[in-house]
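During the no-cost extension, the postdoctoral fellow (Dr. R.K.) reprocessed legacy sequence entries with the updated structure-token encoder. One reprocessed record is reproduced below for audit purposes.
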Amino acid sequence: MALVETPGPKLAPPLPPTAVPSAEPRSGVGLMIAGGVVMAFVAAPAIGVGAAAPSSGQCWSVGGSCDENGERPGSGLITLGVLAALAGAGLLVGGGVRYSQWRRWKANQQTFSPRLGRTALGTGTLGLTLRF
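Re-encoded structure tokens follow.
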């Protein structure tokens, strides 16, 4: 027995690739909010409390008061506050970069949105707005 191939249905040639709309990039607002919260509620209080920490004992240091290890009492909090400030600044900058990219992307997008307007006679009009 021999197999005979019969011609099948003709398939249409594939369509050329069209421009696929790019996915919406992240806006970066969350990063900016997180950076501001870290700067305001972690870094600033830690630096403030660390700088205002009272000395707990006497020390014969030239620069001021120090504890038994030879360090200022609030130096750990100041270090924590500076590190938190650096992290918060990084979040703010990263969020700002993402936000500017998102605004540039948003300006180039086509929009088709409903519109509600008013005429000179005071009546309302409904319509659609196409922006591209």
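The first strand starts at residue 111 and ends at 118. The beta strands are 111-118, 124-131. The remaining legacy entries will be reprocessed before the final report is submitted.
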